[in-house]
Amino acid sequence: MLDQIIDSGKKATRDGFGAGLHAIGQQNDEVVALCADLIGSLKMQAFIKEFPERFFQVGIAEANMMGIAAGLATAGKIPYTGTFANFSTGRVYDQIRQSIAYSHKNVKVCASHAGLTLGEDGATHQILEDMGMMRMLPGFTVINPCDYNQTKAATIAIAEHYGPVYLRFGRPSWPNFTAEDQKFEIGKALLMSEGSDVSVFATGHMVWNAVEAAKIVAAEGISVELINIHTIKPLDEEAILESALKTKAVVTAEEHQRNGGLGDAVAQVLSRKAPTPQEYIAVNDSFGESGKPVELLSKYGLGVDDIVAAIRNVIKRK
Predict the structure, then answer these.
(1) Which domains does the chain have, with CATH numbers?
(2) Catalytic residue among 50, 62, 212, 237
(3) Among 37, 203, 231, 296, which is most buried by a count of CB atoms within 10 Å?
(4) Rounded to whole angstroms, how far apart are CA atoms 216 and 304?
(5) Which residues pair with 34 in a beta bridge?
């Protein structure tokens, strides 16, 4: 099964968002888009060209963008807001909490350039706390797809889900390995490969690193069950428990702080229902820095070799 996971050609997940936004715009006349002066970075050009009357350029005024989106949702529209993940969350958390989450507005907060792989723009832009912040908001759905195809599918799917959504994706070109014609199901984990020795729950860009790590340890005779957790909230507890009870060893991998993200979400489930040895692959209480995306992942403990080491370590703890 691992051998069937093949990179069909690198594409940025933000390009998947742009393609998905254009596609859902063609399917649903209630979809509108807003941007905080980052049209090119968010790949919104195709939507704007075809539906100029359904696009709102807010400028560098992210808090105002969230308020406008809440108003549009009140009027029955389905607004997709677009800016960097740092500006989509940290800069506007109060507006999201008060104007969107509290009244359960149907707003899709779409956030590009998330995590360390933002790269050269450095620590001030590399938000690593966003999934934790957003999953703590009552009623918010949090989605972190792994590649171009999955991001496109997720962007289309969230229009059919009523309620606030945080959709997180990235800047760099990245392996594209999930099915082009996939149907994205919110809250349903995706089994990438079956295994018996260890469960690896990965999200976002880290799914590909987990694929490569699983292939390395397979040569050592270690059987990895790899599960793509694209939805951080609502979490697919059933899939997590079924796998953890089978393998009795867990690794979580995310491009996020250890605190508050996928690892903690999985640990909460396991601690309540199936205590299991767990290793975290995540940033350890640190800000990032400027650098090449893959080099930063390696420096901060999120590289393929780090996942390999975590797999070996957790198996020893069984």
Answers:
(1) 10-174 (3.40.50.970), 190-316 (3.40.50.920)
(2) 62
(3) 203
(4) 9
(5) 56, 81
pTM beyond 0.90 = yes
- pLDDT by residue for the chain (318 residues), tens digit each? 898 999 999 999 999 999 999 999 999 999 999 999 999 999 999 999 999 999 999 999 999 999 999 999 999 999 999 999 999 999 999 999 999 999 999 999 999 999 999 999 999 999 999 999 999 999 999 999 999 999 999 999 999 999 999 999 999 999 999 999 999 999 999 999 999 999 999 999 999 999 999 999 999 999 999 999 999 999 999 999 999 999 999 999 999 999 999 999 999 999 999 999 999 999 999 999 999 999 999 999 999 999 999 999 999 999
7 burial type by CB count under 10 A (0-12 exposed, 13-18 middle, 19+ buried): middle
180 as an active site residue: the answer is: no
